[in-house]
Design goal:
Radius of gyration of chain A: 21 Å
Structural class of chain A: alpha/beta
Radius of gyration of chain B: 22 Å
Number of strands of chain B: 12
Structural class of chain B: alpha/beta
Distance between the termini of chain B: 34 Å
Strand content of chain A: 15-25%
Number of helices of chain A: 12
Oligomer: heterodimer
Number of strands of chain A: 12
Strand order of the largest sheet of chain A: 2-1-3-4-5-6
Order of helices and strands of chain A: EHEHEEHHEHEEHEHEHEHEEHHH
Largest sheet of chain A: 6 strands, parallel
Distance between the termini of chain A: 13 Å
Strand order of the largest sheet of chain B: 2-1-3-4-5-6
Helix content of chain A: 40-55%
Chain lengths: 345, 376
């Protein structure tokens, strides 16, 4: 089958969304399909131009040259196609679940309200054009139902090569690998490190578009005198480096606000690491059972600090949770064959 | 620096410009101080409405986190960016319609829109390079845009190195209908001549006539047709083992990629006299044979290529040296595309003649006569 795999992107920003696209592409090709991968640029948060970009997307017509269109990152789902399937990562969140954070403070809230209604109208119409709608987690499915009244099926994205992540022992570090962005809340981890009472260490890895945020994190580490206990590796690390760092870690942290999925927690699980997350972390929380395969803390520095101390002080329990995390991931069968069977149904 | 290379693609139709786009991204990244990615915008082969829609798509997309773009062909170059370099390798055929006396009113209207959007876009470009002289002339005539010639290099020279000289001449694709009969008759006259044509599609309107001619002239053992579109690797392997390369095309807008690939493989070229601007580097008797499109002339040329192998091989070596002198390499191409601004292309002396001993405006550091001036 000739398949168009369409997703939006920000050039030079790599993240879980690209992994899903490129890993799926590889697996579809393995199954004998021809795949044309299309990344289209999309700039969010500038209302008038946002709609002209959506108009542009809607004019892209690949129905002559492809049998199926699989849309991944928003708003790729607005592309027309007689046979369209969505593997929906998330809404354009500024106008959905992040709306309450934005609207009251923004000077043009009336205009933004109008934009929001328009966008919801477009979404309600174009998402319903799809033959099937899949999402990457129950959190995302719930949002689709609550905001758009659209039912969907959860299809957890598997890792590319789970065998790449292995346990190489347990050091004193809790590791958080992620894009460096405010909603990923690296700052919460740094704040928490001020309150820990044990000798636990923290390692943050990744890059982000927001240089101010990265700089602020560096300053905070200095100001709080945490340089000997917090490593901020502010660069893109390779998959090999990541599996090495995670493989040797004591545990992993993923404390983002309202995360859609959180690939990193899955990588951690395959490396037999307990995952520390927070009650409002979204898609990750649905896969963590407190005290079994990880810890769920309130999103406050003191609470996160207590969890960090617990991970450090009760190493046996931490290792036990790490092993449980791996068995749990294997039980849930994150399986590419299953994903492809469902997508092509 | 983050450089986005922008191309238009028809899904599942991989073409040479698409390969050039990938190679460019690869060689930009190879510099080490640049991050480069490729943006491929879907495009359709089609009529007026479709063309306009596809132009609209490009004009309405927005970019962030990109320092520069390098755009390669219509309509992808219409994507807006404050620092855009155009390396024009393919233009929309519709944009030249008004010159055709038979053009309909609708065609003219469409053509006007394309021309005016192009003109606007070209003014916004920091610099304009063209892959062939013909493209440069076209945009100068229709859009008053001044450009610098930058021929694309061989995509992957390694694939073409260290070949040998076999017993066949090689052609990539079926020659034009008016050339088929001449070619087949010429081959039937030369007993040693063998020909392999690759990249032959059974759907091509020329396929059946070609088969007919081969059978009628009893050439089944001398002319081999390789069906199906060929990968770059496969084409290269045929070319590497050929005695010479056959190109009966009549030039036009061609970028001359086949010519430079044959030269990179050290093969002389057998061509006809309306070969177009590839003439620039194919010199009769030195780097190939350039003859009139007649049975007689082609047969003579084939005879001399096959009977005097030593001379043929010498011409192949000379062709390779010619290519080396042209210095069509990826590192130089990348340097040229990244060279400091020459100012808006319109300021480039407004077509004023560049002195032959002056530094070349492409920024290569060479004298004009040794660089882009060679083509003028």
């Amino acid at each position: 089958m000739k398949i168009a795999l369409v997703s939006s992107f920000v050039p030079f920003v790599l993240g879980g969304d690209r992994n899903i696209v490129e890993w799926l592409e590889e697996r579809l090709c393995d199954h004998g399909h021809q795949v044309e991968r299309i990344y289209l640029p999309f700039v969010e948060n500038i209302p008038p131009a946002m709609f002209s970009q959506i108009d542009a997307y809607q004019l892209i017509d690949m129905s002559d040259s492809t049998d199926l269109l699989i849309a991944i990152r928003s708003p790729a789902y607005v592309l027309p196609h007689p046979r369209k399937v969505l593997w929906f990562l998330s809404h354009i969140r500024t106008y959905y679940d992040n709306w309450p954070n934005l609207e009251p403070t923004h000077p043009n809230s009336a205009i933004l309200n109008g934009c929001r209604r328009q966008l919801m109208g477009i979404d309600n119409r174009t998402i319903r054009e799809a033959r099937r709608v899949f999402t990457i987690s129950h959190v995302v499915s719930k949002r689709l139902l609550d905001f758009n009244g659209i039912e969907s099926e959860v299809l957890y994205p598997p890792l590319h090569r789970p065998e790449q992540f292995r346990c190489h022992g347990y050091n004193d570090e809790v590791v958080f690998v992620s894009r460096i962005e405010e909603h990923k809340r690296q700052h919460l981890m740094i704040e928490a490190m001020r309150h820990v009472k044990s000798a636990v260490k923290l390692r943050l890895c990744g890059t982000g578009l927001d240089q101010f945020y990265s700089d602020a994190l560096k300053m905070a580490i200095d100001d709080y005198g945490l340089r000997d206990r917090v490593v901020f590796d502010n660069r893109r690390i390779s998959e090999d480096e990541k599996s090495d760092i995670v493989g040797r870690a004591l545990a992993c942290a993923f404390v983002s606000y309202n995360e859609d999925y959180g690939y990193f927690s899955l990588e951690a699980a395959y490396a037999q690491k307990a995952v520390l997350t927070t009650t409002d972390s979204g898609g990750i929380v649905e896969r963590i059972e407190h005290g079994v395969n990880g810890l769920i803390a309130e999103p406050q520095p003191e609470a996160v600090a207590a969890a960090l101390d617990a991970l450090y002080r009760d190493r046996d329990a931490t290792i036990r949770m790490g092993r449980a995390a791996e068995s749990r991931a294997r039980e849930l069968k994150f399986d590419w064959d299953h994903v492809i069977t469902r997508l092509l149904l | 620096m983050k450089i986005l290379v922008i191309d238009s693609i028809v899904p599942f139709e991989n073409d040479r410009i698409g390969e050039i786009a990938r190679a460019l991204v690869h060689h930009l990244n190879a510099r080490g101080d640049i991050e480069s990615e490729l943006l491929r915008i879907p495009h359709r082969n089609g009529d007026g409405e479709r063309l306009l829609a596809d132009m609209d798509v490009c004009q309405n997309l927005r970019l962030e986190n990109v320092d520069r773009v390098i755009a390669l062909r219509f309509p992808s170059y219409l994507v807006h960016h404050r620092h855009k370099t155009l390396w024009l390798l393919q233009q929309c055929t519709q944009s030249w319609v008004p010159n055709e006396p038979t053009a309909s009113a609708e065609d003219r209207k469409l053509s006007d829109i394309i021309q005016s959007d192009d003109t606007q876009c070209f003014t916004e470009c920091r610099r304009i390079f063209v892959g062939s002289l013909a493209l440069g002339q076209q945009i100068e005539t229709h859009n008053h845009a001044t450009s610098h010639l930058l021929r694309p290099p061989v995509i992957n020279p390694v694939l073409l190195a260290d070949g040998e000289y076999g017993d066949y001449i090689f052609a990539n694709g079926i020659p034009a209908p008016n050339r088929l009969e001449i070619l087949i008759k010429a081959i039937s006259r030369v007993s040693a001549a063998r020909l392999i044509i690759a990249g032959v599609s059974k759907d091509s309107p020329q396929y059946e006539p070609l088969r007919g001619l081969i059978t009628a002239n009893n050439l089944v053992n001398k002319v081999t047709l390789e069906l199906g579109s060929l990968s770059h690797d496969k084409t290269a392997s045929f070319l590497k083992r050929a005695l010479a390369y056959l190109d009966l095309s009549s030039g036009g807008n061609s970028l001359g990629l086949d010519t430079i690939e044959a030269f990179a493989a050290a093969k002389p070229i057998l061509a006809v006299t309306d070969f177009g601007e590839k003439h620039e580097i194919v010199i009769d008797g030195e780097t190939g044979k350039v003859v009139p499109a007649t049975v007689e002339a082609l047969a003579n040329a084939l005879d001399s290529l096959f009977s005097d192998r030593e001379r043929t091989i010498r011409m192949g070596q000379a062709a390779h040296q010619t290519l080396n002198r042209l210095d069509l390499t990826w590192p130089r191409t990348v340097e040229t595309l990244l060279a400091p601004d020459l100012g808006p292309s319109g300021d480039q002396g407004n077509g004023a003649k560049i002195r032959r001993n002056a530094p070349c405006p492409c920024g290569s550091g060479k004298r004009y006569k040794h660089c882009h001036g060679r083509y003028n």
